[in-house]
Every structure is written in C-alpha cells, then in structure tokens.
Amino acid sequence: MPSSPLRRRLFGLAAGLALGLGLVRPGFGADAITVFAAASLKNAMDEIAAAFERETGRAVTVSLAGSSALARQIRHGAPADIFISANPGWMDALERDGLIDRGSRFDLLKNSIVLIAHGRDAAPVDIVPGADIAGMLGEGRLAMTFVDAVPAGIYGKAALRRLGIWEAVAPKVAQADNVRAALALVSSGEAPLGIVYATDAAADGNVTVVGAFPADSHPPIVYPAAAVAASRNPLGARFLAWLRGPAARKAFERQGFVPAFE
What CATH number does the domain located at 4-110+223-259 have? Predict the structure, then answer.
C-alpha cells in the first residue's frame, strides 16, 4: 500500500478527476476526509494530517491553495468537508450564501506578516511610515500574493497603504496566486523582497525576515475553520474538534502560529 503522503496525493488526484466527471460529492464516505486549507498552512497541515491518520485510521486529503481559490472551488461544488481560510472575509462570503455550516465555525489561528529578503544575512529594515521600500527594490520586484484577492496580499496592501508606502511600491509588485509562491520568488532570488506570513518565512532557510509590519497597520490576521454545509461526512465534527486538541495545537505552534481558541 502507498505511504500516507503518497496516498493523500493519489486520493486528491482521484477526487479531482471524479469531481470533473460529476461522480463525487462532499461527504462521500466515513473512511476519509477532505480539507481545503490556506497554502500558508502547508507544513502544519502535513503534520496534522499524518497524526490524525495515525490516531484514527482515517485518510486525510489536504488541498492547499489561496483562500480565494478554495472558496471559489467550494462555491462551484468541490468535494470539500472542511475549509480553513487565512482570512475571515472568504469564510464570511461562503457563510452568507449558506455554503458553510455556521454552527461549526470558529477562529483557529492567528498570524502576522513580515518583509523578507533573499538570502540568509540581509540587513534589517525599519518598517515605519514612509519607509523607502521602493528604493530598496531598485529594479527588482516586491513579491506578494494577489493584493485584492488572496489574504496575505490583502493584509500586505493594507499595511503598505497605512504606512504611506503603497503608491511608491505598487508598480513594482509581482503578484502570485498563493503565499508559498510569493515566498518561492524571494527564496529563488527572482524577487529581492517579499511580503509573506511570518510562519512561511520561518519555513524557508533561503530568506531573511528583515522587518515585521506593525499589528495596527492591517486588520487582525485570523484563520477561521468550519465544515462545508454540503458535506455529510461524519468525520467533519471529529476533525474540527481534533484541530483544537493538544496534538494539533503543538503542530501549529511549531510552525509559529498562535492558537486563537482556548
């Protein structure tokens, strides 16, 4: 039998094909659960999925992407049981349309955004009103996620606006569809600077966190979790409860997330 990570990937491919053929709906069985999670949760969710499988014997398929892309997929009937968004706004939009089980929703995690630079020993930057980030870029680009759709980009744009920096850097922004893609642009040296979550920056040894954005420069970064309303999977409630348990909490904290639940 394939290893657990391989099984999750194969299951994801099969589920995607079945969805395209109209053969699979949410809650297709009690032996597996499908979790749609923001890309910034990758490392933590890899660990959590493996631990849940060991404890329960149930397979976990984790589909990672920008929260906006995942929300669109849920809206179009993708077979998701659980949604974890990096932004309350996308969860709110699905909830307004009755696509999220309102009673299952709770705030799971908190995060922060940072300015990163390529390499391991970049000089620190004071992120203050009017900071000359545009000048530091020179001819280079500032890697961000889509600033009007993906949560990390929305938060980053809000912070740059609040600090009076956005107009200067906007023409130099390279937009990616998720935070891991933005991180990769800086890690590879394709972009000298980027704005990502602190947790993503901590996962890559080829970047340096050169500054943290003030918490009051953007809306609070909160990750809500909820069951998808169309899912009838009996594992949904169990998995959501497990996310608030000690094993999951430790996994999140190891990646730098701050639990938003008690």
Answer: 3.40.190.10
- The share of the chain scoring above pLDDT 70, in percent, equals 89
Domain boundaries, the chain: 4-110+223-259, 113-217
Residue 228 has what DSSP assignment? B
- Nearest residue to 60 via CA among 34, 29, 97, 87: 34
Calculate mean pLDDT across residues 147-168.
Answer: 96
Across the range 131-160, mean pLDDT stands at 96
Strands ordered across the beta sheet of 173-176: 173-176, 142-145, 193-197, 113-118, 207-212
User: In what order do the strands lie in the sheet containing 59-65?
Assistant: 59-65, 32-38, 82-84, 222-227, 106-110, 258-259
d(CA 152, CA 240): 24
Domains 4-110+223-259 and 113-217 share a fold: yes
CA distance 214 to 204: 22
What span, in angstroms and rounded, lies between the C-alpha atoms of 172 and 214?
22
CATH of domain 113-217: 3.40.190.10
User: How far, in Å, CA of 262 to CA of 89, rounded?
Assistant: 22
Strands (E), the chain: 32-38, 59-65, 82-84, 106-110, 113-118, 142-145, 173-176, 193-197, 207-212, 222-227, 258-259
Task: Please give the backbone phi and psi of residue 201, each rounded to the nearest 5 degrees, phi first.
Answer: -60, -40
Q: Compute the distance between CA of residue 12 and CA of residue 80 in angstroms, rounded to an integer.
A: 11
**Residue 26, pLDDT above cutoff 70:** no
pLDDT band at 30 (very low <50, low <70, confident <90, very high): low
In the predicted model, what is the mean pLDDT of residues 245-259?
95
